[in-house]
Sequence to fold (273 residues):
Amino acid sequence: MYQKPNKRLTGQTAIVTGANSGIGKAIATSIGRDGANVIINYITDPEAAEEVANDICDDKICGQAIPFKCDVTKEDEVQAMFKKAVDHFGTVDIVVPNAGIQKDYPLHEMPLDAWQQVIDVNLTGQFLCAREGIREFLRRGMRPEVSAALGKIITISSVHEKIPWAGHANYAASKGAIVMLMQTITQEYGPMKVRANSIAPGAIKTPINREAWETPEALNKLNELIPYNRIGEPSDIGSAAAWLASDESDYINGSTIFIDGGMTCYPGFTENG
Ligand code: NAD
Fold:
């Protein structure tokens, strides 16, 4: 879905991780269309990252975009990505640590490395990016001509920061932890004008959950969990992220915005309980 740009983010630079696919791609595109420069982080499939960057750059009203390969679990690689952003664009104003994975097992069968990999990408990766972002915000100082905030961090959690998820304990634990990471950032750095918020997507049509929507039967079953009765599109998240990065949402700090068609309203209780 094409979103009308309004250039709310002109003069700012964003880093979006996992930006060559699904939700990250939509966030990077929306933020770029709103005028920001964007680092399109990827770990595999450089062609897809290049395509996202070209889409942003081709549109004359947008900011500039460059792909950057980095494993978000590696401290030195994350630092190199921030250095690239500062060298190329001057600073970083918006950090969206979106990269995430699932490694699903019943808890009693979950190998330690499946637990660890999910925590490493979904939690430690978001910590490393948030930390490097805050370091850069503090180094650079306020730029009132581009934003009322010193910097913005938009962590990507999930409805599973709230809804327990059998068979996905590692994933649910990583997303539950994001709430405390994000709110602690608000408490610690809000006084310095940093805004940290989370977006908690429900079921969004991306490669991560393909088996939940790729057949009509699976999609019907999924829709039973969604009062609004449709699966989410990546653009549903992208447009919200661009707004959350802009001064239009300046008084929102320490909040999780659920974008889930009502999934967290427990539709299973409509006729039961
Ligand atoms: P996706 O699989 O399309 O995208 C995940 C991205 O993360 C990919 O680009 C992947 O290459 C990247 N990635 C994985 N490991 C990485 C690493 N070590 N370093 C850098 N990048 C890495 O899935 P998606 O649905 O777009 O997921 C994006 C985020 O949204 C994730 O954090 C996910 O948990 C969250 N989320 C998705 C849904 C959904 O329904 N799709 C729901 C709730 C939350």
Summary: The helical segments are 22-33, 46-58, 75-89, 112-140, 169-189, 216-223, 234-245. The mean pLDDT is 96.
